[in-house]
Amino acid sequence: xxxxxxxxxxxxxxVAAGCSPIGTTLNDNASFHGVLDSAEVLNRALIGTRGMxxxxxxxxxxxxxxxxxFDTPSDALYDGFLRDGFSTYRLIVDGAVRVRAxxxxxxxxxxxxLDQITRHDCVEGWSAIGGWGGVPLHVLLSAVQPTSAARxxxxxxxxxxxxxxxxxxxxxxxxxxxxxxxxxxxxxxxALDPDHGAPVRLRVPTQLGYKSAKWVRHIxxxxxxxxLYGGKGGxxxxxGYAWYAGI
Length: 247
Ligand SMILES: Nc1nc2c(c(=O)[nH]1)N[C@H]1C(S)=C(S)[C@@H](COP(=O)(O)O)O[C@H]1N2
Ligand SMILES: [Mo]
Fold this sequence. Notes:
By secondary structure, the chain is α+β, with helices and mostly antiparallel strands.
């Protein structure tokens, strides 16, 4: 037990240090510390490499990256974005934030960028290694300044299951602030293609593939996921998949 506590507290220190660029807003945020102190962090500290995904070499990149999940959106909204090269697309960010925002792709491309070669693991049993580039989610969160009510980050997508249920996902602040959690704009050096989630998708290399929401249009910062959609924090979670999908 002593060793467990030691591991947990050193993880907390690493995470807190990793958060320092976020500024005082999140470090002063009581619910953020609440998440770090929770029993779940203790459990996560015992899994794998202290919460960091493995990074790969350029020569490890798979030549083809499988496409999976629902069909690429083909409605008027998405078609319009495609036709104008996503120049009218805005990533809406609101909820428990001091600064509501609607970021253009150009604005996202001007934010600090991260490129990392990671492996995507689908729960269905396939994996693919890709070079993902984009804006670390903590950079975006820092820009909108979550309030002390912030607890979860919800990603609403532009696709649906064909019966009208929208794809969505969520992370808690702990996972959202993990330094490798990325709002991806690029795959293997090229702008994200429509089938892989253009113009903006989530890439969470520490979690199973279904957490990495494609075609993200709206990010909501919320105190609770209970009242949203099926209440379990994601399209697949609402069908019974685990909300915490750490690998
Ligand atoms: N919006 C949206 N995001 C999604 C999905 C989806 O159906 N819709 N499928 C998920 C699953 S199960 C996987 S494995 C990956 C697949 O990403 P890829 O098509 O880039 O391989 O996207 C995830 N994100
Ligand atoms: Mo998946």
